[in-house]
Specification:
166 residues, 6 helices, 5 strands, 14% strand, binds magnesium ion
């Protein structure tokens, strides 16, 4: 069994989830991962599109969180398009995560500093906090700049019974 899976399953562990591509499926367009107006239109036009109204959650993660104390569950997401209210509403409706536990930043580079703020405010030691993201470069940055544990979102989709050896 992967050690991080054990840590994640410890009810005392604090988990900080990225949102786009982690808690919410990164399929915002009609036939594209990115919404058709994301990058192709003016920023102002895309800001007016409510991409989280009608978005899709990840059932295996919702099941994982059903038995957890949500006081130890946070979100940390890049949100430069001012979809703040709608994004917080989506993770609250689907996962029950409190809007006050959702931290939004303008750029991925801010994530390590905000993780430190979350840990300090909640009195969590680095080995009891796991940050989960779908972007390996963001995970790398957190690993380089903090002592927190990390996991790629695919940890939830793995077969935890069988390991492929050859
Ligand atoms: Mg992401």
């Amino acid at each position: 069994m992967n050690r991080i899976w054990e840590v994640l399953n410890d009810p005392e562990t604090t988990i900080v989830f990225d949102i786009d591509g982690t808690l919410i499926s990164y399929n915002y367009g009609e036939r594209r991962a990115h919404h058709e107006l994301d990058r192709d239109a003016t920023e102002e036009v895309f800001r007016g599109v409510d991409i989280y109204n009608g978005c899709r959650g990840i059932p295996v993660i919702r099941d994982f969180l059903k038995t957890r104390d949500l006081a130890r569950i946070y979100c940390l997401s890049m949100e430069p398009h001012r979809h703040d209210v709608s994004k917080k509403k989506a993770v609250n409706l689907y996962y029950g995560i409190q809007p006050s536990h959702v931290y939004l930043v303008d750029d991925h580079s801010e994530k390590p500093a905000v993780l430190k703020q979350i840990a300090e405010a909640s009195g969590v030691t680095p080995e009891k906090l796991v940050f989960i993201d779908d972007n390996s470069m963001v995970l790398r940055r957190v690993e380089e700049e903090t002592a927190f544990l990390t996991a790629h979102v695919t940890v939830f989709f793995e077969d935890h019974e069988e390991m492929i050896r050859f």
